[in-house]
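go over whats below:
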Amino acid sequence: MTSERLTGVPASPGRAAGPVVRMPARVPEPRTTRLSGSADEAVRAVKEAAARVEADLAERASRASGTAADVLAVTAAMAADPTLAAGAARRVREDRLTPERAVWDAAGSVANQLEALGPPMSERARDVRDVRDRIVAALTGAAPPGVPDPGHPFVLVASDLAPADTAMLDPAVVTAVVTARGGPTSHMAILARALGIPAVVALPGAGDLTDGEEIVVDGTLGVVLRAPSPAEVERARRSVTTATFDGRGVTRDGSEVELVANVADPAAARAAAAAGARGVGLFRTEFCFLGRGEEPSVEEQVTAYRAVLSHFPGRRVVVRTLDAGADKPLRFLTPDHEDNPALGVRGLRTAVAHPDVLDRQLDAIAQAAAAETAEVWVMAPMVATVDEARDFAAACAAHGLEQSGVMIETPAAALQARHVLAEVSFASLGTNDLTQYTMAADRDLAGVAALSTPWQPAVLQLVRVACEGGAMHGAPVGVCGEAAADPLLAPVLVGLGVTSLSMTPRALADVAGTLAGVSRDECVELARTVLECSTAQAARDVVQERLLT
């Protein structure tokens, strides 16, 4: 019997096999029932249920680390969002709705507003509905959303997966994830990569997969096999990587490529160092800002940054200044409402209205750098113009931070790289946003998931232009987006001129293994061939054929 091959979008590399376990149905929609008791008591019940959900998610965040902790903290903040609570209270008092119905309708209104804003805010609509389900479950006594526990390893299949659930997946139990919706740079996909769980998203036919059937998932190729042969199952199980990383990225002919880690908090830094990473290509500083109503003090920031820097004595750590706005709003910093926040005040742009926040953060980074022995470089997110780069470099210099750089996340910054890198010392390509802005595609929307890949020829052309701009000034240009973790894409990026690849620590061994099998000249030839391809699929296919056959 021949296996049936389903093709979706690759989201997290690796192969795995196992029986399907479907995500249970979401909390059912409450009936529209009129309130018979006290409105004050009903409003109080909503607030208490929201507080319990917030406390549960915050507790999960405290047990997680890195991106997972950030995602859980943001989701916990959603449960405490006064907009949601006020909307539910108004429906209780004015429409005499029961608490659960009021919460359902209020959350639906917020989610619809987010979807109307477009990416990246639209991807938060799913998170709002996840919080809604948890609050309704707390009010009604229903089972809250959560990953099933059948007592054996399995492949999790869902229409979509909320980041709050993905963040708590156990890779020893969940061997792979398959979803009908989502995109390759969604939060779910990023979390799956961080956990080392193979994943395929936007899979046509995912809804037909049944509980208990054995499937093979190839997250590198975006393929799911139904009714696989025993040999196909065995190959998938043998393919689980046992490779280790010795700290070096070296091509077959001895050319070095710096392989470093993305980290988001001290626990993630400790894990990265334990995995062999010799430095950090992206230190996300949001962890000490998210979920707070006020800016952390300079002293708090110094303590937090030192806790990361201390794991890399004598090694380079690239610190990204606060990347707030869009899907990471902060009450004390970002606007209360923007019609299109993805194109609004985010990243470095927040410093226009609040230069003091950036100044205090640079002060804290400088103090932490002086107290530790790590080699600290600093870069700003969401840079689009030469003036922004020049002003940021001056701000860093005023604090004694000599190595200043920028994130290249906009096509404008990539196209102007030769001028931007005349003002700063280095750049790092954030391929998630660069892809999103280049392709005008919501990274979490299944309908455009095929567009949301760094294999797109237009995106790779921008990478080439950015690297050429850096080479004109002898300035290194790295990649710290999710593209760096793709073992097939890594040699292409090196061939385009990328000098370092920063990724989730779990990807280091696989990327190093791929680079060890190719020469520098072969990387350049791969890049040249890929740039001649007219489609993303053609580019991926040609590299796959060269490297895997």
